[in-house]
Amino acid sequence: MEADAKFDEKVLALIAEAIPGPLRKTRITPELMLRNDLGIDSLGIAALVFRLEEAFGIEIGDQALDLNVSQMRTVADALNASRQIVSRARAQQTA
Amino acid sequence: MDAPSAAPPTIIDAHCHIATTEHTPRSFIDGAIANMVTALVAQGVRASPKMIASMYLQKLQDPLCDELAADMAEAGIAKSVLLVPDFTYALKDTPLTIEESFLKHREVLLRHPGKFEVFGGVDPRWGADGIALFERSLKEFGFRGLKVYPPCGFSPSHPDLFPYYELCAHYRVPVLLHIGPTSPALSFETTNPFMLDEAARRFPTVNFILAHGSVSFTEECAMMCSHRPNVYLDISAFQSTLRADGSGKVVKTAVSRGINHKVIFGTDWPVFRLQGNQQSFVATVTREDGPLADLTPLERELVLHKNIERLLANARTAVPERATA
Fold first, then answer.
1. How many domains does chain A have?
2. Which segments constitute the Amidohydrolase-related domain (chain B) (predicted)?
3. Which of B33, B96, B164, B245 has an alpha carbon within 20 to 30 A of A38's alpha carbon?
4. What digits encode the pLDDT tens for the residues B193-237?
């Protein structure tokens, strides 16, 4: 649970970095829409995905090509997708 | 008792394209992707061109405009104008010939009756065949305008375009031309709106729409609209400013110059699909405290649909035949 909480904290920090200026002070909660509430468009989501590599010491590689960023609509979607991406990348690294 | 809510506005999107790589060569798309990668890398993001390309290409899988029609319905857009820039002379990796491209657009007109208009474009260097194709598009296919794309390497006032403008005068259809920057695969040399001036002067009965006039050469576009009765601008590509400023300020500026009888709503779909959908773009422009807030109701109608309707009203072109089962 603690590991989960720390993971979410890291990803939420990455999401906060992607929020454009005027909306930066928004308190991020899981139900918020990435685009409509936080102003994060698909490019911002792509940047978030790439930043997962640095934040978690992983290589996403070709996994990124299967990503459908338009399915990441809310903060909760981004957290879930990030979890999947990181665990798949870690599994590939240890394989 | 609650006050009755206002009817949603009528909206026509005067600047769209079919979302498929059939009509747009990969070299054009790769140029646009290079710009995105550059921006991300500058922010310290280790962006992969392959991933950005994959994301971008996911949004170009709508050859019959079914997704666009659905997006239009969701956004309250009654009709869209599909533009066919002719890249076939300038970029040799364009998958279809321009004639094939025209036929595909005709297919869309028949598939979605009443939802679309088409402005066909032909590179003027294709000579007499190109002129014949364009006239055929007006007489037989039901196209209602000309699309001119100067970044392919010609001025909008080049004499080779005059036969096209003569046809536009005869059939009473407008011309929509790209101005300003585009994919780095092409040149920006011939994209200043003042390059249209000679053509606009020589063909006073032809109406010319300067695409992207809310973001590119905005002062020049405003001058042309103010002083040439037959020149207009569309606001498409305003979405390029939304990452920095979500308010749509550039649209507010465009409609604050006393030329609202010349300003036309457009989205350049699918170019900005990574930044949002039609509903979000319409909401940005039409929200209560948005860029049109200070306009009178009539001025809003002019921008959102009446200006483009006026330009299309007197066309002497074919009516697209209905598809039979």
1. 1
2. 12-312
3. B33
4. 999 999 999 999 999 999 999 999 999 999 999 999 999 999 999
